[in-house]
């Protein structure tokens, strides 16, 4: 395991980002201590001590920051997030996702 976390930023183009984030917060809230800030349209998803996602409603979609301990796990969790968002965005799905790995300074 690396000492440096794997961080990726993603964007999911969609018409109702706030709704989808709220649905994810409620869905994953049964297993994790999720939260939603209505003022910012921000959902936080602490999957474990080493893994988390933050989703922000933005014009035209959902901005996602995903942090994991390892790159392989980061890529796996991207797919988990995409499948879950697509499930709630079924009228628009499959959505278009853009991911970019972030280098730690």
TrEMBL record:
<dbReference type="InterPro" id="IPR014543">
    <property type="entry name" value="UCP028291"/>
</dbReference>
<protein>
    <submittedName>
        <fullName>DUF2218 domain-containing protein</fullName>
    </submittedName>
</protein>
<dbReference type="Pfam" id="PF09981">
    <property type="entry name" value="DUF2218"/>
</dbReference>
């Amino acid at each position: 395991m690396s000492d440096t976390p794997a961080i990726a930023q993603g964007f999911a183009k969609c018409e109702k980002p706030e709704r989808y984030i709220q649905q994810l917060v409620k869905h994953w809230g049964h297993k994790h201590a999720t939260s939603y800030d209505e003022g910012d349209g921000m959902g936080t998803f602490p999957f474990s001590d080493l893994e988390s996602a933050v989703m922000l409603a933005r014009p035209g979609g959902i901005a996602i920051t995903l942090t994991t301990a390892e790159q392989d796990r980061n890529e796996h969790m991207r797919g988990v997030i995409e499948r879950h968002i697509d499930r709630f965005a079924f009228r628009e799905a499959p959505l278009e996702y853009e991911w970019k790995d972030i280098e730690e300074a």
